[in-house]
Amino acid sequence: MLNVISELSRVLDSKGNPYLEDMHTPASREIEATELEVIGEIPKDLTGVYLRNGPSQRWQPKGVYHWFDGDGMMHGVEVRDGKVSYRNRWTQTLGLKQENEAQHSIWPGLIERPDRSIQGWGSNGGLKDSSNTDVVLFNGKLLSMFYQCGEAYQLDPRTLETTGKIDLKGMGARTLSAHSMVDENTGELIFFDYGTTAPYMTYGVLAPNGELAHFTPIDLPGPRLPHTLSITENYTILMDLPLFWNEELLKRDVQKVEFHHELPSRFGVIPRYGNSDAIRWFECDPTYIYHMVNAWEEGDEIILDVCKTHTPEPTKSLPGPYGNLLAWLKIDPTYVRYRFNLRTGEAKEEAMHDIFTEFPVVNGRYYGRKTRFSYHVGFADAPTTLFDSIVKYDIEQGTTSKTVFGDHRYGSEPAFAPRDNSQSEDDGYVVTLVNDLNEKRGEFQIYDAQNIEQGPLARVILPQPVPSGFHACWAPGDILQKTMADW
């Protein structure tokens, strides 16, 4: 059964921009769908909701469109009692509401010069907060977040309706970056943001009830552009990495990002409730890190597993009018482990694997605790950023296993979905959204986490394609049952 909530009467003019075409074509409908066709069998011990955030541009872009500009759209697939339903909604940000009223785009995008005559968000205060990047389940609500720091928009985990936002400024904080993290063992949200004016970074903790429990500025030598943080049981790892703006151009309101080869990568280990003067900085070779795998404590050491980018700034543009855009979105990350010794101050780096993978996820119940397994996406040989496979790492055995989606089939960041009453780290399923460009349709796919190479246990056919997007999470049924009266 299909219920169309809203449908656009126009199609965007891509102007040849590959991030508005094919797999990246914005969705034109908000729908709810039940009684979906299933190829295979839905596991009876899988209960929860898969959520995936991503861009779906609503109005014709103002200037050159960047993949990161698109209006945030949440896609949700609910699994319960062997049945599956799907829905999608635009996150009703302040910026999108204003553009809907104006019936056109108002804000220039990431690679355009900011319009300082209008309110803006992001680290430089000039972007529209599209809330299109990450999603976590916190305090019974979904939090939809923006990669360049913005509001914390709250959504209903089942309906995906935007219900409000966390009043960070009212509590004495500022904004939060997309890759803020929920510790499922404590219920806390650990967050940071960054900006082009001092303080160049702030760090904080929201208590499980949503109240601000801790907040402090972090002393940095200048404006920086970090993307993520990581947590252990007792510490948070913040990053000061040498990919950031040209500071002289920044003074003229030109946001030109450069890789500063002469500077080290710095990792700041701070107690979860520590202030800036308690941070311990560790220096390593210059690099850039978009996403971490996990972190934990081993004796005197902090272990940090990441996807390390080896060429943070492209050496040359690619051919065509969008060659520079395409070049910056081509990255070469591999699995790397850092060790930071809190007693000696020593930092070590170790390559774990040499294949290019990104968007790593682990069983969320083990974030901040030692993990053995992680699940990453593999990159397709394509002009734009597309994911053609899922790669599972067994870091203790030093092995990988892999499943490939198939010809002209591309996936999303997966999520680990624990089996009901699961007993071990990889006792569960890996779930994701896949677009079949041959059939022009979307699918929700379920894999046995312990045997992903056998292919999907079930493929749920969706009534529309799902545009390529960013980050995802799994909202377990047992948590939803505790926090939602209608679950």
UniProtKB/TrEMBL annotation:
Source species, domain of life: Bacteria
InterPro entries assigned to the protein according to its UniProt record, in alphabetical order: Carotenoid_Oase (IPR004294)
Statement: the UniProt record of this protein carries the keyword Oxidoreductase: yes
Record keywords, A-Z: Iron, Metal-binding, Oxidoreductase
Cofactor(s) this protein requires: Fe(2+)
One Pfam family from the record: RPE65
Family from the record: Belongs to the carotenoid oxygenase family.
Protein name: Carotenoid oxygenase family protein
UniProt organism field: Parendozoicomonas callyspongiae
Origin organism lineage: Bacteria, Pseudomonadati, Pseudomonadota, Gammaproteobacteria, Oceanospirillales
